[in-house]
Amino acid sequence: MAFIVIGVLMLLLHFAGIGPTAAWDPFSLTGFAKFSVPFLLALAWWAWADGTGLTKRREMDRELEKQKERRKRHIEAMGLGPDQRSSSFRRR
Predict the structure, then answer these.
(1) 16 close to 6: Cβ distance less than 8 angstroms
(2) Integer Cα distance of 28 and 90 in angstroms
(3) Widest pairwise Cα distance in the chain
(4) What's the rounded Cα separation, in Å, for the pair 69 and 85?
(5) Left (φ > 0), alpha (ψ -120 to 50) or beta: where does 77 sit?
(6) Which of 23, 54, 63, 68 could share a disulfide with 49, CB 3.0–4.6 Å?
């Protein structure tokens, strides 16, 4: 995502005429290469992340966290949470 932001920022700076990107000619081969590097790096990153399973692992971790939070909320709603159990144990 950072590579995409950098690429878009470079394009915005070019069209606004700010900084060194303002002097680059996007229609020449070297200028086009300079503007396309961040987007190609983002493409390579996404291909690597999908190929190694990093994306799937992160998705599975998020789902596991949601499941834990949901389970915790349901246990507390039933009155079986750690606070409720300790107080009911003391009363007996």
Answers:
(1) no
(2) 79
(3) 83
(4) 19
(5) alpha
(6) 54
Q: Name which of 40, 37, 34 is nearest 22 in CA terms.
A: 34
Instruction: Give the dihedral sign, CA 42/48/53/54.
Output: negative
Give the N- to C-terminal CA distance of the chain in Å, as an integer.
57
Per-residue confidence of the chain (92 residues) as pLDDT tens digits? 899 999 999 999 998 999 888 888 877 878 888 889 999 999 999 999 888 988 888 889 999 999 999 999 998 888 887 776 555 555 55
Contact 35, 10 (CB under 8 A): yes
The model's pTM? 0.60
Contacts of 36 (CB under 8 A, 6+ apart): 7
